[in-house]
Amino acid sequence: MRPIAESTTKLRIALLFGGRSSEHAISCATAGGVLGAIDRDRYDVIPVGITREGGFVLESDDPARFRLDAGALPAVEDNGTRVRWPESATGRELRVAEGGEERSLGTVDLVFPILHGPFGEDGTVQGMLELLGLPYVGNGVLASALGMDKHFTKTVLEAAGIPVAPWVTITQRDWATDPDLWRGRVAALGYPQFVKPARAGSSVGVSRVTSEADLDAALAVAFAEDGKVLVERGMSGREVECAVLGGRDGGPARASVAGEIVVTGRDFYDFEAKYLDAPGVDLVCPADLSEHDLAEMQRLAVRAFDAIGGAGLARVDFFLTGSGFVVNEVNTMPGFTPISMFPKCWLASGLSYPQLIDELIELALQTTR
Predict the structure, then answer these.
(1) Is 98 considered catalytic here?
(2) Which of 49, 70, 181, 324 gets the most CB atoms within 10 Å of its CB?
(3) Which of 317, 328, 353, 359 is catalytic?
(4) Is 339 exposed, middle or buried (0-12, 13-18, 19+ CB in 10 A)?
(5) Could you confirm whether 53 is annotated as catalytic?
(6) Tell me, which fold does domain 11-136 have in CATH?
(7) pLDDT for the residue 212
(8) 149 phi, psi to nearest 5 deg
(9) Of the listed 199, 275, 340, 359, which one is catalytic?
């Protein structure tokens, strides 16, 4: 992959993280990884945090400030500053109000949003940036919205002929109006099942259900995150993942080698296992796949990325069953801490974490030239 062309002028990158979703801490941890790895000879970085209440603040440019710790998850605190976005699409100057005064943060070349969950990964922030005419890293409004909503992701993938796990979507109104009807539809999926908020990530609000007796409690947990919930048939097979980058110079999207999640002592790959180093899960990369299986997985990953109109990056999650690959999810802003599967897969494919950051920035700049 080509490096970014050398320039005598640094690019000014606004790193946008935190946010109003339940994945706030994971976004902050990702910010810490990027702040620690981004090439300061090429980029000036403006860390813009979003508080849990939605305030845009000028944050600390200190990677250690956002270290992921089970005892004290990182967060964007309201420090009294307020970052002001451009007033229109005719300029790219960011300003900050602090202590009754306002000063310039300079003209921004690119925004790097590393937000997870609603109000950031779902197309809302992307829409704001589009309105302001600010180029940004990653997927656009439509792909972000589709990837965030698991029901519509599955609907689009199924229409594109890509295998997905059977599912039932239930809203809170559905469940309140006729629970017996929906119990029957859910039971027809068979067991075990996974109950998930339709618009959340990082396994927040997810439960494994092994009988009808578990359903009510699982739905309550999921409805606490989202008013729309998916119940999916549990798939028997290996859990494998593939990282995708958008194509260069009009070329096709590219898929990494595969990674595998090996669950040995837990019901599933939950939040604690993903981010807090809980035991019972191993991340293996590269996964032990035949050449044929790897090629098929990469082909399906790129097809899924293209089906939602992907740009920049995604991680496509699969089950490898006895009858082939089944797509579980398409993550348009996957976990991006240095130990997350997305950078691990690219590292095993020959791209270091700092190089991966460079590549994502270059892909974003290409779309705005």
Answers:
(1) no
(2) 49
(3) 317
(4) middle
(5) no
(6) Rossmann fold (3.40.50)
(7) 92
(8) -95, 105
(9) 275
The answer to whether residue 275 is catalytic is yes
Q: What is the residue extent of each domain of the chain?
A: 11-136, 146-163+236-368, 167-233
Look up 328 and say whether it is catalytic. Answer: no
Is 335 catalytic? The answer is: yes
Torsion of CA 36, 39, 41, 42, to 10 degrees: -130
Those residues whose C-beta lies under 8 Å from the C-beta of residue 116, and which sit 6 or more positions away, are 19, 21, 23, 26, 27, 30, 201, 202, 333, 335
- The highest-level CATH class for domain 146-163+236-368 is alpha beta
Q: How confident is the model at residue 3, as a pLDDT? A: 40
pLDDT (tens digit per residue) in 275-301? 545 556 788 999 999 999 999 999 999
Please tell me the chain's helix, strand, coil percentages from 3-state DSSP, rounded to the nearest 5.
30, 25, 40
What's the pTM?
0.89
Specify whether 22 is catalytic: no
The CA distance from 269 to 272, in Å, is 8
Which among 202, 207, 256, 340 is annotated as catalytic? 202
pLDDT at 7 over 50: no
Q: Please indicate whether residue 312 is annotated as part of the active site.
A: no
* Type and span of the H or E element at 214: none
Whether the predicted pLDDT of 156 surpasses 70:
yes
- Identify the active-site residue in 335, 340, 358, 359: 335
Residues 167-233: name the CATH superfamily: ATP-grasp fold, A domain (3.30.1490.20)
